[in-house]
Amino acid sequence: MYITWLGQSCFKLQDKTGSDGVTIVTDPFDPKIGLKAPRMEANILTISHDHYDHNNRDAIKGDPYTIDAAGEYEIKGVAIEGVESFHDSKKGAERGKNIIYRIEFDDIVIVHLGDLGQNSLESKQLESLVGADILLIPVGGGYTLDAKRAVEVVSQIEPKIVIPMHYKIPGLTVDIEGVEKFVKELGIKPREEEKLKISKRDLPQEDMELVLLSC
Fold it and tell me: How many CB atoms lie within 10 A of CB 190?
């Protein structure tokens, strides 16, 4: 599997490169956030919530199967479960709901938290996220988890690999923090990659790994 970060909460997940593989895109953003909008073809598109930095559907070509609600789905051999959560710590009173996605793809389980804002996950939500291999987690605070709360959620899910997202990078105009506080709070020396190439047999079996993807 290839995992490419495109900024904010937008990732491209591929089981193989080339037109014969399956491509999933998560949370494409509008370029008014200061970053170049992702423009590519995909088979599957997931949207965690309907805010402009997560829902630029028109940027994704190829007539993808679009998922923007909780439920269970199976498309092109990919099993996806959308889990309802909240975009804030007040049960959605400030910013509404958010969909977490558990994506079982190429024998790897990826959990994409979208703009999770809850202080912690509820037991029912955790039941749906069991077996997470790779966790894509927001860490920049402001509109979602800050560094300290993100580390607490990591400890709840216990993935094998953590990939932070939704933090300040050059060009981004959204007022959020960088990744440094999260790295310090988590206490794991990060591995930096342009994109992550990973298979089931490559997953760490003991200590959790932190991977920072370039954008």
Answer: 16
Residue type, 93: A
Which of these, 39, 37, 38, 42, lies nearest to 64 by C-alpha position?
A: 42
Beta carbons of 40 and 12 less than 8 angstroms apart: yes
Beta carbons within 10 angstroms of residue 146's beta carbon:
18
CB 32 within 8 A of CB 54: no
Lowest-pLDDT range, 12-26, 62-76, 110-124, 136-150? 12-26
List CB contacts of 124: < 8 A, sequence separation 6 or more: none
pLDDT of residue 119: 84
State which amino acid sits at residue 71. G
pTM of the entire predicted model: 0.94
Residues paired with residue 198 on neighbouring β-strands, in sequence order: none
Contacts 24+ apart (CB under 8 A), 54-60: 54/8, 54/9, 54/10, 54/27, 54/28, 54/29, 54/114, 54/115, 55/27, 55/28, 56/28, 56/29, 56/30, 57/28, 59/28, 60/25, 60/28
Other beta carbons within 10 Å of 177: 15
Amino acid at 152: E
